[in-house]
Write a structure and sequence with these properties.
There is one protein chain. This protein is α+β, with helices and mostly antiparallel strands. Strands 1, 12, 13 and 14 form a four-stranded antiparallel sheet that branches. It has a four-stranded mixed sheet with strand order 2-11-10-9, with helices on one face.
């Protein structure tokens, strides 16, 4: 990271731009194809059935919740897996698989009561044993979002089939909200599909190889097919414990297509081959797509900050003053005003509006200050001898512009 935690203080909060195709039945009705929508006799007015939502993404998703951490993976996780709690659009913490919970007076023990009757995609019931297994697997693998719990959870107990107890290493006020990252997997299904030669002892590979193209969840949708770097398809899970009665317009399937090339995205939106596209399109493409009839551009604050990472073990970035100089060489205002449109300058390592945010002193574009930092560094006379290489994800047009 650039200057350790300091870099987080300098980056921009990003507004995701999401393209949503207007869901007009007559406009999308067709014979064949993934966009088919048909109305059955007796269906309530405005209801849609047999619908597949196509979503453009940058890279096909990881289906293993212990590994997933990309944007497309997060979208897949939210649909394939259930968690103990979740956060709706209003940002509150709501129960999901957990019906209720209690906290001990010392803040070190959380006891969750599970809903009864929730089913995994294979028809088996979700129990406290699955929660314990999912937590221990999450922490043992140590990838993805496991860091939100790795220094917090000490042990997990299962007093009964519908009761699970988390013992914490220390009080942690954000523990419950952190559980939105703990997807509950089917213990029996995962263990039936482990590779015994894996590095986790009796758990083999913990089912990681199998979960590349399969899911072990209880979520609203279930995995059907994943073709790496091409597409992922999931169908609606009819036995989802949250039910579908009050969701008459819910799609029967969704398909994530690995497509981000601007002209391709524009064409697919225009020909109704995509209902939603990725949020990484350039300003120019945003404008062009927004002018297509039936397409609207939606803005959502994702409460994210953009980070850049440096290898602090290699010269010259092993010197803090060189890193500080780098902080002063980013034209933050130009990035906010011309590239990440709708964003604002960050004022702290945690995005504004997120619990834990504090205002900090932030860097600004200042060449003279950068020179002063370089003069104080151990590379004051030799920094020009080093070639700096920067890697950016060219799938993301705005990141490429920032890199340039």
């Amino acid at each position: 990271m650039l200057g350790g935690e300091r870099m987080k203080k300098r980056i921009k909060k990003r507004l995701f731009l999401l393209f949503v195709m207007t869901m007009v039945v007559s406009a999308l009705a067709a014979c064949g194809g993934n966009a088919d929508q048909t109305l059955e006799e007796g269906t309530p007015a405005g209801a849609v059935t047999d619908t597949t939502i196509r979503i453009g993404v940058s890279g096909t998703p990881d289906l293993d919740p212990a590994v997933a951490n990309t944007a497309s993976s997060a979208q897949a996780m939210a649909n394939l897996y259930d968690t103990l709690v979740y956060t709706p659009a209003d940002g509150t913490i709501q129960p999901r698989l957990a019906e209720s919970w209690e906290v001990s007076e010392d803040g070190l023990q959380y006891t969750f009561k599970l809903v009864e009757g929730a089913k995994f995609h294979d028809g088996s019931e979700v129990t406290a044993a699955d929660v314990k297994f999912s937590t221990e697997r999450f922490l043992a693998i140590g990838e993805g979002y496991s860091f939100v719990l790795s220094d917090v959870v000490d042990s997990v107990e299962v007093p009964s089939d519908y009761e699970v107890v988390f013992n914490l290493k220390h009080p942690y006020g954000a523990f419950v909200s952190s559980l939105i990252r703990l997807a509950i997997v089917n213990q029996d299904l995962v263990m039936d599909n482990i590779d015994p030669s894996g590095p986790y002892g009796e758990f083999g590979d913990y089912g990681k190889a199998w979960l590349v193209t399969n899911d072990a969840g209880s979520g609203a949708y279930k995995a059907v097919e994943l073709v790496q770097q091409d597409y992922f398809h999931a169908d609606r899970f009819d036995d989802w414990f949250m039910g579908w009665e009050d969701k008459p317009n819910a799609p029967t399937a969704f398909r994530m297509l690995n497509v981000v090339e601007p002209s391709t995205v524009r064409t697919m939106m225009k020909t109704r081959a995509l209902e939603i596209t990725d949020p990484w399109q350039s300003t120019e493409n945003l404008t062009a797509i927004g002018q297509i009839e039936g397409v609207s551009v939606g803005k959502t604050n994702a409460f994210l900050e953009q980070n850049m990472y440096l290898n602090t073990t290699k010269p010259p970035f092993d010197d803090v003053n060189v890193r500080r100089a780098m902080l002063c060489l980013f034209d933050y205002e130009s990035i906010v005003n011309n590239i990440l449109l709708g964003s604002t300058l960050s004022t702290g390592p945690v995005a504004a509006g997120v619990t834990g945010h504090v205002d900090c002193d932030v860097a600004s574009f200042d060449i003279e200050k950068a020179k002063a930092y370089l003069a104080k560094s151990s590379y004051a006379d030799t920094y020009q001898d080093y070639t700096i290489e920067m890697m950016v994800n060219t799938d993301v047009a705005v990141m490429q512009k920032i890199g340039l």
